[in-house]
Each structure stands twice: as structure tokens, then as C-alpha cells.
Design a protein that fits this description.
Oligomer: single chain
Number of strands: 15
Order of helices and strands: EHHEEHEHEHEEEHEHEHEHEHEHHEE
Number of helices: 12
Structural class: alpha/beta
Largest sheet: 10 strands, mixed
Shape: globular
Length: 311
């Protein structure tokens, strides 16, 4: 082939690149799934586009394999709020259940509940608190599940949440505003963001009054990192993350951190394996070894404020 057409492949060359026979190649052409150009009666194929096709097929195979694992109930995907204990527990869970894998992604409490509703995860995690109803999790489920009976809420733990800062005692957002301190926020839809917005409302402040309110990160570690490296002066994070960093921690309150699963899935083997793991002594010992956690309801099925009974 001359220099002008060096990026174009013949049928034989394209078949070799794609690792398929020529008959299959022509079939893909006829179906419009392959790029090709007919020149003087012969088919020629752009190498770059064929290579992109190969990468796409490989990625598609990985996605298919992953989703088949989810369907076959070998992979548990947790979506929602962020807490370091979840990441630490993944290896422990796999050691106890070698045929199961546990993954998590920090997308925020509300987004986690939505993804659970839409079938994109095994369970979601939330620490959303409704200050008017004085209850966690349940006041928010109605936005996604009209009937609370559609889901089961299991407590993972309680944790201390508060202000983190560098050698500054934080008492209020208004105090920080007057001192000109820069804030690092969490993403919209997260439980921490909801708490911050509530505190602003209580103190009669608009978001624009807090320098850095629009600076968003997705995890407690990100908050601590921004404060530690001087990118921000303060933020809100879990005590367990603040303690190793040696940042000052000012407790706001203790919050309940819950796991939410669909009731129809609750008695499935892989979900029950996760529930049993949460209730085991090793998980409770992990919580006990870290600062700012309580396992007093760990593994319990929770009910709305005033609800009857507990498992």
C-alpha cells in the first residue's frame, strides 16, 4: 500500500486485526457495525477506527462480565454516603465470604437511594437527618419509595460528625464567616451537605456568606486533605478521619449511618451474607478500634420514629 493509504487496511489485514474470518467481517459491514470504504471495487478499512472498535468490544466484555456477576449475585455494590469503615470492611468481608465481592462508591446519600430504586446497586447507605421529624433515613425514602415496606433499613453504626480545622476552635458558621475562614464543602445530595445547609438556615446565613461554600469534594478524606494542605481553613467530616490527621475536631452531633436494601432482596443469600457480616464480632471490633463510632444498634433492622418492633 502506498504512503497515502497506509492507515487503510485490506479485508485480509482487517480480519487479522479483529481476529475474525472474512465472512464475519462482511456480515458486520452489512449490518453497519464496521467502518469501511469501497475503492475501485475493493473494501478498505481505517485502522484507527477499527482499533477503536476493538477497544469498545473489550470494554463491553468487561461491562457484561461485571453486570453478569451482579446478576449472579456474586458482587455486592453499595452506593451512597461515604465512610472509611466501608472501604476497610471490603477485604474483611471477602475473607469471610470468598465467593463474594463487596464494592462501594461515594455518590452521596440521596443519589445512593435513587440508584437503589433504579436497580443500579445492591444496597445504599445514608445518614440523612430530618431535623423537623427528628429521624434519620425514613423521612427521605418516600421521595423514591412511596411505600416504606418496599425497603429494609439496617443500622451500620453511629458516628460523630463535626468541624475540622487547623488549630482553630470552631463554634459556628457565623463565627467562621466573621473570621474570614475558607470552607470546603461536600457535594450536593450528600448528608454532610444537607447538615451544612441546615446549619446555615439555623444561623440565618445565605450560602454566599461562607467563603468556599461552592468548593465541593466527595469524601471525608478529601475534606481533611484540603484543610491539612491549606486549600481550606475548615470543613465538616467524621471524627474517625479527622483524628489521624491531627486536625482540631469540634463535634456537631452524633448521626446514624444506615444500610438500605430492597425488601424483595433482603433474604437473598448474598444480602444475608452482608447482614451477617455486619452483625459479626469482627465488624464490631473494627468500629471499636476507631475513634468516634458506636455499634450499639449495629446490624439491627430500624423502623421510623415511633415504629413498632425491631429484629
Amino acid at each position: 500500500m502506498d504512503g497515502e493509504n497506509k492507515e487503510l487496511l485490506t479485508v485480509k489485514e482487517a480480519s487479522k486485526l479483529l481476529k475474525i474470518n472474512e465472512k464475519k467481517l462482511y456480515a458486520l459491514l452489512n449490518e453497519g457495525k464496521l467502518p469501511g470504504t469501497k475503492v475501485t471495487g475493493k473494501w478498505l478499512f481505517p485502522r484507527l477506527e477499527l482499533e477503536e472498535f476493538v477497544r469498545g468490544k473489550a470494554l463491553g466484555a468487561v461491562r457484561k462480565s461485571f453486570w453478569e456477576s451482579l446478576v449472579n449475585k456474586k458482587v455486592l455494590l453499595l452506593c451512597g454516603s461515604d465512610d472509611p469503615v466501608i472501604a476497610m470492611a471490603q477485604g474483611m468481608f471477602h475473607r469471610m465470604e470468598p465467593e463474594l465481592l463487596l464494592f462501594s462508591t461515594s455518590v452521596g446519600s440521596r443519589e445512593g437511594i435513587r440508584l437503589l430504586r433504579d436497580g443500579f446497586c445492591t444496597a445504599s447507605m445514608s445518614h440523612l437527618y430530618d431535623h423537623e421529624n427528628r429521624d434519620f433515613t425514613f423521612p427521605f425514602l418516600g421521595e423514591y419509595f412511596p411505600d416504606h415496606e418496599e425497603v429494609v433499613v439496617i443500622n451500620l453504626f453511629y458516628r460523630n460528625i463535626g468541624y475540622v480545622s487547623r488549630n482553630v476552635s470552631i463554634t459556628s458558621l457565623k463565627d467562621c464567616m466573621h473570621k474570614g475562614l475558607r470552607f470546603v464543602n461536600r457535594q450536593e445530595g450528600s448528608g454532610v451537605r444537607a447538615l451544612v445547609d441546615h446549619l446555615l438556615q439555623v444561623e440565618g446565613l445565605g450560602p454566599g456568606r461562607i467563603a468556599g461554600y461552592d468548593t465541593e469534594v466527595f469524601t471525608h478524606f478529601d475534606v481533611v486533605r484540603h484543610v491539612s494542605d491549606g486549600s481550606a481553613d475548615f470543613g465538616v467530616a467524621a471524627e474517625s478521619v479527622a483524628t489521624p490527621s491531627r486536625l482540631a475536631f469540634s463535634r456537631i452531633f452524633e448521626e446514624r449511618f444506615d444500610l438500605i436494601v430492597k425488601r424483595d432482596d433482603f433474604f437473598e443469600r448474598h444480602v444475608q451474607a452482608l447482614v451477617e457480616f455486619i452483625r459479626c464480632e469482627r465488624f464490631k471490633e473494627l468500629l471499636g478500634a476507631l475513634k468516634g463510632y458506636s455499634n450499639r444498634d449495629t446490624g439491627r433492622i430500624m423502623y421510623p420514629q415511633g415504629g413498632q418492633g425491631r429484629a
